Request: fold
Amino acid sequence: MPKDLTKLESHFAFGHNWSDYADKILDDQIIEAKNALHRLLGDETLAGKRFLDIGCGSGLHSLAALQLGAAEVVAMDLDPESVNTTERVLRRFAPAGASYRVIQRSVFDLNIADLGSFDVTYSWGVLHHTGNLYEALARAGAMTAPSGLFVFALYRKTWFCRFSRSRRFDDVNGFSSAAAVPIE
Ligand SMILES: C[S@@+](CC[C@H](N)C(=O)[O-])C[C@H]1O[C@@H](n2cnc3c(N)ncnc32)[C@H](O)[C@@H]1O
Reply:
């Protein structure tokens, strides 16, 4: 029987890894996350923009977006432990009065009618974990407003994968493939 990819049971339980993250996060990590996001966005500013973080995990990237001036952040993750950690991280470190919401949701259950569209749709190291990469890319990309930016990073299999389950490469936060795609 095909797995229901919208269900938590069909995924690796990443959230558990982050359960005490909110208590351990360091200023340097926040600064590095902001710098990395800034590098990725290039000339784009987040000021006044709606930012969607798909598969928010620890919430660090959502936090970086808020600290870089995003008008509103929606952070979402399938895993309730990730949702919980992100809530705690944002409660603790988000700028006073920042507008954000953290929801438990699968990328396959996203829809614009419910959440609206986003100036920046962001998904770092997530979509290849969903069980259907191309459908996940389509669903995530569809959340991006016209003239918006769809930013995603994926792992790639390499020769070294024979020796370790995954290896992170390259210059952008160690990921093998990262893209910032302007949406027409
Ligand atoms: C490797 S972690 C990356 C977390 C975060 N983006 C980061 O860069 O630190 C992958 C995250 O994707 C989430 N995830 C996996 N499948 C998902 C799905 N179908 N919908 C939403 N989130 C999903 C996991 O729960 C996990 O938090």
Q: What stands out?
A: DSSP finds six helices and six strands in the chain.
